[in-house]
Write a structure and sequence with these properties.
- By secondary structure, the chain is an all-alpha fold.
- It has a single domain (12-381), classed as Orthogonal Bundle (Hypothetical protein af1432), CATH 1.10.3210.10.
- Helix content is 64%, strand content 0%.
- The protein has 19 helices and no strands.
- The chain has helices at 6-9, 12-19, 45-54, 57-61, 80-97, 102-111, 120-130, 139-150, 164-173, 184-207, 213-216, 220-233, 238-267, 273-281, 296-314, 317-339, 346-355, 357-366, 370-381.
- Helix 10 runs antiparallel to helix 13 (238-267).
- The longest helix has 30 residues, at 238-267.
């Protein structure tokens, strides 16, 4: 076949012009990179950012980092990587429904958790305590540190040299007051993250026997999901009901978010990125508006579910016992490396001169997987 105008049909500028809303972040309007690079012949800036994250060591390690349930011997529950992929799937659906930049959304979703240390939030809380005198530790701030410093793409500059919009989004997630108001693409990823963990933590908790489906069905948002499931499938029970409820729980939240966000875009006449930011900042006249948000009933239902999970799951005796043992190992290994900085890998020893031994030790340990931390603790301290 000859005569195909490949230059035209593969041009991302033209494609975005046809498919994105005026409120979306168009790649052509990107503020660029910290270090200038030649444009790619057929990949947009955000496509390149996505690929840099996917090919990074930090992303690969997510496969063996805990999401919530530290140290529990079960292959069913989520890892940090499977959580990231679920967030990305939901975020892309939301982006397409709201005519947003899917490439940017996918990039933000894939990179949003690369700063998480081993052992899930237990590891993060431990490092935060250990670094209290050094400015603390936060996985969102650590992700930005990875993107701009710790990962290496080229000897010409540190970090991955991602687009400024990606870095701004991560700065927003770490609540950096100097970051610009979040794009709708950033807001979508935050919402997708919430939908994913509310649902899959519920699933994992049931699978591990921490709670029963009957307890969850007492919550209004879960009860509504069950009603919807029975309307489609009839009088299902047991495992079939559980799977159907979880499916409907995601769909319920996504559908509500799309409808509510579309309504807000129209109501507030949002017709540009500048308008998105002005609305979030409050137009200088008071409290701003997050455009991508749930309706009040669904938001209230999610809050009830999250409170239930916190009380019945995240702080259950079983989870807390395992968590405490894991935190102790991380603390011991951290102290050992601070006392023996010569044993840090060469690049972390070199960086310790600029940021201090405790921070460089935290950079090293935060990059470990759960199983590597276990192994390293065994060889150093046992």
């Amino acid at each position: 076949m000859t005569g195909i105008d490949w230059a035209n049909i593969s041009d991302w500028r033209a494609r975005e012009g046809h498919t994105l809303g005026a409120w979306a972040m168009h790649s052509a309007d990107s503020a660029g990179r910290v270090h200038a690079e030649q444009p790619h012949p057929f990949r947009s800036p955000y496509q390149r950012d996505r690929d840099r994250i996917v090919h990074s060591a930090a992303f690969r390690r997510l496969a063996h980092k805990t999401q919530v349930f530290t140290g529990l011997a079960d292959d069913y529950h989520r890892s940090r990587l499977t959580h990231t992929l679920e967030v990305t799937s939901i975020a892309r659906t939301l982006a397409r429904a709201l005519a947003l930049n899917e490439d940017l959304v996918e990039t933000l979703a894939l990179g949003h958790d690369i700063g998480h240390p081993p052992l899930g939030h237990a590891g993060e809380d431990t490092l935060a305590d250990l670094l209290a005198a050094e400015g603390g530790f936060n996985h969102n701030a650590q992700a930005l540190r990875i993107m701009t410093l710790l990962e290496g793409l080229s000897s010409r500059f540190p970090g991955l040299n991602l687009s400024r919009e990606v870095l701004d989004a991560q700065a927003t997630r770490k609540r950096d007051g100097s970051a610009p108001a979040p794009l709708l693409e950033t807001q979508v990823v935050d919402a997708a993250d919430s939908i994913a963990y509310d649902t899959h933590d519920t699933d994992d908790a049931i699978e591990l026997g921490l709670v029963g489906l009957d307890e969850l069905l007492e919550l209004p948002i879960v009860a509504e999901a069950a009603t919807r499931a029975r309307e489609v499938l009839g009088d299902v029970t047991g495992g079939d009901l559980r799977r159907a409820v979880l499916h409907e729980l995601v769909d319920l939240q996504v559908a509500d978010l799309v409808a509510e966000s579309r309504g807000t875009i129209e109501r507030l006449a949002i017709d540009s990125v500048a308008r998105v930011r002005a609305v979030f900042d409050g137009d200088g006249a008071g409290r701003g508006v997050r455009v991508v948000a749930h309706s009040p009933p669904v938001a209230a239902g999610k809050k009830q579910l999250e409170m239930f999970l916190f009380q019945k799951v995240y702080r259950s005796d079983r989870v807390m016992t395992v968590r405490a043992a894991a935190q102790e190992k991380l603390s011991q290994l951290f102290a050992w490396y601070v006392a023996h900085p010569e044993e840090l890998p060469a690049r972390f020893r070199a960086r310790a001169g600029a940021c201090g031994v405790p921070r460089s030790t935290a950079d090293y340990i935060a990059g470990m997987t759960d199983r590597y931390l276990e192994w390293d603790h065994g060889r150093r301290l046992c």
